[in-house]
Design brief:
Its main location: cytoplasm. GO terms for molecular function: adenylylsulfate kinase activity; GTP binding; GTPase activity; RNA binding; translation elongation factor activity. This protein has 22 helices and 31 strands. By secondary structure, it is an alpha+beta fold. The chain folds into 4 domains: about 1-165, Rossmann fold; about 180-260, Translation factors (Elongation Factor Tu (Ef-tu), domain 3); about 270-365, Beta Barrel (Elongation Factor Tu (Ef-tu), domain 3); about 510-689, no CATH class. A 6-stranded mixed beta sheet has the order 2-3-1-4-5-6, sandwiched between helices. A 6-stranded antiparallel β-barrel has the order 7-8-14-11-10-15. Strands 16-19-18-17-20-21 form a 6-stranded antiparallel barrel. β11 (about 215-225) and β12 form a beta hairpin. α3 (about 65-70) packs parallel to α4 (about 90-100). The chain is elongated and about 120 Å long. The N and C termini lie far apart (about 75 Å).
Length: about 700
């Protein structure tokens, strides 16, 4: 159990902890010289049964309330200290308000300096304390007179804390590991040590972790839990982690950072939340209100964006969006506190709802429904409600990350809810089972309607189809979804087009006969330099206009592609050329090839080779930089699967396949897609069937 002190300056918080544990939490020279606590202090007290109670001693001065907040975020039990001679003071009230906003429900009031006052004064102060506690979550906690000087009540205080520790249920360690850093230092022969309270999950020696918001990776070389060497630190423990890794140093970590399980690092600077404004506030909270946000051990400037109508009056609660000056690491349903920008007073606080609040359309009914779902306490119930709200689909991986769930929790949730998961890259889009059935039916209905209106076209463009469906899935996920439906046999993917398996295109008898003559002229040994429209007209004795019309019809059917004006290539030839392009790029340094290299591979002349490459450029199959080009792995299936498999792309060098600098280096955003598309058989084999 972690116990946090709270109370006004000079009311004896540090002396009380020392009387209990024998440890002086004031460690700084300035603290000892001035006799006041400036920074967080820590002490540990072993009790019967082998348990160790941890104490976080906080400053009581109004100038250091921000430091008090850094220490209060991870405590289980509040030790509210009120001097019997002074009674309730301003920081007593502010600290109490902060404890209430942070949801601390267990605690004890210690009336210190009880040896200096009469019994009547003790009773008077006790009644005053009980009065201010009444409106908080600590309304029913006990009040105990003590004296650190004479020892009055110290033994009973220790007994009550031990009893509270025995009654406090051990926190579940199921979630992903999160530790809020409150202190960083170096030790000779050991290295960098970061200390803090474990907010969720557990960590073991040797584990890989990430620092957020910096994104640095580290390894836990050793750790102390509750001031003892340990192999494991669990939720609720105060831990000291000895961290090592590239870039890890005392200056790289600071109070306010989080040490996280890999995969949880996703800092945010725009958060939808609930906000309860304290009753004592003089004015309502208006739009774009400036404040200081305190979360765990972090402090950052923020602006309050109202999501409802009108200002937020003192004593009321509303939904807001918090726009931060810099990103922080957080989790859904974490608590936070707002103070004014001059650090004079606490304004209010609440819970985070959505860590990815949008900058636009924040007040729509759809967003309100999503926030209502995400605000639910149970993770599975919340996600089920989220899938029932527009757009009726959500990224399970992102939800689990923002909720701080472990992989085991996530898989259990998906299994028990019977979710349909559509995966592409790191995204795992989840859809409720009933919604999936209606989505699949809608795909069939849309394609059937399109075929009825366009019987002479090979199919519907997949992007056009995506935009007409609900839920509107991200493009890469939609491709994976179509592939899933295609495996069930209901539809077929023809490159960038989708058709029902039952759909068959037929030409008019005259066009059928003409295509049977023209198609062979575009294939065979001359397929990389096929004759143009006027040449075909001359070779077949047909009218040039009729040849052009037929080839354009073949283009709409996906049998041929107009690479340059009046210059058509068969679709299988285009796929073959993409395969050769991939193969040639794999042989070239850095995966980049020139027009000359491509010309030599096709043996079709510089002009035609450049026309083909420019055609690929226009369709995003290649990315051009000066005279160099490289295949764009996200568009290689645009004309159907290339001849070579994706494993052969750049010789299997994944560092070249997945380069994260595609956009900055090549001036083009990769277009979502995939390799697993169904290709058309050659027109010569399909004929006019």
């Amino acid at each position: 159990m972690i116990i946090g002190t709270a109370g006004h300056i000079d009311h004896g918080k540090t002396a009380l902890v020392k009387a209990l544990t024998g440890i002086d939490c004031d460690r700084l020279k300035e603290e000892k010289a001035r006799g006041i606590t400036i920074d967080l202090g820590f002490a540990y007290w072993p009790i019967e049964g082998g348990r160790v109670l941890g104490f976080v001693d906080v400053p009581g001065h109004e100038r250091f309330v921000h430091t008090m907040l850094a220490g209060a975020g991870g405590i289980d039990f509040a030790l509210l200290v009120v001097a019997a001679d002074d009674g309730i003071m301003p920081q007593t009230l502010e600290h109490l308000a902060i404890l209430d906003l942070l949801g601390i429900e267990h605690g004890l009031v210690a009336l210190t300096k009880a040896d200096l006052v009469t019994p009547e004064r003790l009773e008077e102060v006790s009644q005053a304390v009980r009065s201010v506690l009444a409106a908080t979550a600590l309304a029913d906690i006990g009040i105990l007179p003590v004296s650190a000087l004479t020892g009055l009540g110290i033994e009973e205080l220790g007994a009550r804390l031990a009893a509270a520790a025995a009654e406090t249920a051990e926190r579940s360690a199921e979630g992903g590991f999160r530790l809020a850093v409150d202190r960083v230092f170096t030790l000779a022969g050991i290295g960098v040590v970061a200390t803090g309270t474990v907010l969720a999950g557990e960590v073991r020696v040797g584990d890989a972790v990430e620092l957020s918001p910096s994104g640095l990776s580290a390894r836990v070389r050793s750790l102390h839990a509750q001031n003892r060497p340990a192999e494991t630190g669990r939720c609720g423990d105060r831990c000291a982690l000895n961290l090592a890794g590239p870039g890890i140093g005392k200056e790289a970590i600071r109070r306010g950072d989080m040490v996280l399980a890999p995969g949880l690092h996703a800092p945010t600077d725009r958060i939808d939340a609930t906000l309860r404004v304290l009753t004592g506030e003089a004015k309502p909270i208006s739009q774009w209100f400036p404040a200081r946000l305190h979360h765990a051990t972090a402090e950052v400037g923020a602006r309050v964006v109202l999501l409802g109508d009108g200002s937020i009056e003192p004593g009321t609660t509303a939904e807001v969006q918090l726009v931060l000056d810099r990103p922080i690491a957080a989790a859904q349903r974490d608590r936070y506190v707002l103070r004014d920008v001059s650090a004079q007073r606490t304004i209010g606080g609440g819970r985070f709802i959505d860590l990815r609040g949008p900058a636009r359309r924040r007040r729509t009914p759809e967003r309100a429904a999503q926030r209502a779902a995400l605000a639910l306490a149970d993770a599975q119930t919340a996600f089920t409600a989220l899938l029932a709200a527009p757009p009726f689909a959500a990224d399970l991986a992102a939800y689990a990350r923002d909720r701080g769930l472990s992989a085991m929790q996530t898989e259990k949730m998906a299994r028990e809810a019977g979710l349909v998961l559509l995966e592409a890259g790191t995204a795992r889009i989840a859809i409720a089972p009933d919604r999936w059935q209606s989505f699949a039916a809608s795909v069939t209905e849309q394609l059937a309607a399109y075929h009825a209106e366009n019987p002479d076209l090979q199919g519907m463009g997949r992007e056009k189809l995506r935009l007409q469906l609900t839920p509107r899935l991200p493009a890469p996920v939609f491709v994976a979804t179509l592939q899933r439906l295609a495996r069930d046999g209901g539809l077929v993917l023809d490159g960038a087009f989708v058709r029902l398996a039952s759909h068959t295109v037929r030409l008019a008898p005259g066009d059928e006969a003409a295509w049977a003559v023209i198609a062979p002229l575009l294939g065979g040994a001359e397929r990389f330099r096929p004759p143009r429209v006027r040449d075909i007209a001359g070779m077949t004795g047909r009218v040039e206009r009729d040849v052009r019309r037929l080839l354009k019809l073949a283009g709409r059917l996906g049998w041929a592609d107009e690479v340059a004006p009046d210059h058509f290539f068969l679709r299988p030839t285009v796929r073959e050329m993409i395969g050769l392009l991939i193969e040639e790029a794999g042989r070239a340094p850095g995966g980049e090839l020139t027009a000359a290299q491509f010309r030599d591979r096709l043996d079709n002349g510089r002009k035609v080779a450049i026309q083909i490459l420019e055609f690929f450029d226009r369709h995003g199959v290649t990315l051009r930089k000066g005279d160099l080009r490289r295949p764009n792995r996200h568009r290689l299936d645009l004309f159907g699967a290339p001849v070579l498999s994706s494993d052969s792309f750049f010789g299997g060098d994944s560092s070249l396949v997945g380069r994260s600098d595609f956009k900055s280096e090549w001036g083009s955003e990769p277009v979502p897609g995939g390799f697993d598309s169904h290709s058309l058989p050659p027109p010569s084999s399909r004929g006019v069937a």
